[in-house]
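Summary for the lay section of the report: proteins are chains of building blocks that fold into shapes. Here we show the chain for N-acetyltransferase domain-containing protein and then a coded description of the shape we predicted for it.
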Amino acid sequence: MRQSTAGELSALYDRAMFDFQPTLAGELVQVRPLQAADFDGLYSVAADPLLWEQHPQPDRHQRDVFGRFFLDALSSGGALAVADAVDGRLIGSSRFHGYDEARSEIEIGWSFLARSHWGGAYNRELKHLMLRHAFAYVDTVVFLVGPSNLRSQRAVQKIGGVPAGTRLDGSGSLSLVYRIESRDWPQPAA
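The coded shape description reads as follows.
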């Protein structure tokens, strides 16, 4: 039986230590760990009821409901603030969650962006940054989407998400599962 080299073991160890709150930068968005001081800026985005109209929790635009969501995000250890790369203004949030080392899997979810930044380019760059980061550690990224959230279903499909059944989310609600495998994900040309 062949013994693993120290370099191989180090690479495996590094891969197993998933970084839930990286700082990532693209041309359109900057991503960093969510902080308590981000509440007001993020709530100014989340207060738009149209953001949540297809969401399983459509009242998240209410300050107290969003406050609970925000505290949960902070305590999760995987929440990220998303800022416009041009002016630095907060435009949304996303999260890494549910790292499963045995399955080599992580979930990307709880994502929302200001309506002023809808239309594909910002979400696509955000998810590409997060996917590139995730695939340094895992082979599979999953997205759980509410069955009535057609907008999010289309957005996940646009970035390569493939339907993979259903699963109960953390609140016990049935969600559609979309999966992206690292081997299938298009890498940008070097």
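Put simply, here is one thing we learned. Residues 63-76 form the longest helix (14 residues).
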